[in-house]
Design goal:
MetI-like fold; mainly alpha; globular; 247 residues
């Protein structure tokens, strides 16, 4: 783990040193490009609170979208008519920019938590749905025939064959959606909010507080990175038999 973390930490530290030197040597105004030390000075309890709001919104949206997408994918695999009828609707929702939908969510759900959570749900739902449908259909035909020969029920086939085959596909989708959840929550905060990193970004940009703006952006990136690596850790523990999960 330490060996894997060393290269990105080393390159990150080098980038920060070069950034700090460039700002100091070039005497760049802080409102244009603040130095890393100026950005670090804005890290305080207030930023932590805004981070907590956005992280909880993103996490709630991610969890709801994952459970909902898995349930819908299961129905699609079980009932092909549902897949044929509803999949185009899912594609339509996916292709509609979340920025266009966010104002409607604020009108319908208000400026509280739920408009941001639903924005995160909408942006996370489709990747999980597509991958889970593909994963549940990925079981080898030979194994499916073996289960039928042994008299396995649909429930046993689903739990003991389709789900294990689906897990690598599921975790690949979860890694994508975990980062998108933060994007959805922040977009929801852009449209209507009184707290959160998106709100902080809007306010700090309006006041030309560029150092605070950078700190909010870094906090948002950290939220996405934390969720991504948490999913990766769970993947390595749960699907250790897969070449992708065991790395």
């Amino acid at each position: 783990m330490i060996a894997r973390a060393a290269p990105p930490l080393a390159f990150g530290a080098l980038a920060i040193v070069v950034w700090q030197a460039a700002v100091m040597i070039g005497k760049v105004p802080e409102y244009l490009l603040p130095s890393p030390t100026a950005i670090l000075a804005t890290f305080d309890l207030s930023l932590l609170k805004q981070f907590g709001v956005t992280f909880l919104e993103a996490l709630a949206g991610f969890l709801i979208a994952s459970v909902l997408a898995f349930a819908v994918a299961t129905l699609f695999v079980r009932f092909h008519l549902l897949e044929e009828g509803l999949f185009p609707i899912a594609i339509a929702v996916k292709t509609t920019p979340i920025v266009a939908i966010a104002p409607l969510l604020v009108i319908w759900l208000g400026t509280g938590w739920w408009s941001k959570i639903v924005a995160a749900v909408l942006i996370c739902f489709f990747p999980v749905l597509v991958n889970v449908v593909k994963g549940l259909k990925a079981a080898d035909v030979e194994y499916l025939e073996l289960f039928k020969t042994l008299g396995a029920s649909r429930s046993q086939e689903f739990r003991k064959l389709r789900v294990p085959y689906c897990l690598p596909y599921l975790f690949s989708a979860l890694k994508i959606s975990s980062s998108l959840a933060v994007v959805g929550a922040i977009v929801g905060e852009f449209v209507g909010a009184t707290k959160g990193l998106g709100y902080l970004i809007i306010i700090s940009s309006a006041h030309l507080e560029t150092a605070t703006l950078f700190s909010a952006i870094i906090a948002a990136a950290f939220a996405g990175i934390a969720m991504f690596y948490a999913i990766g850790f769970a993947e390595r523990r749960l699907i250790f038999w897969s070449s992708g999960g065991g790395e």
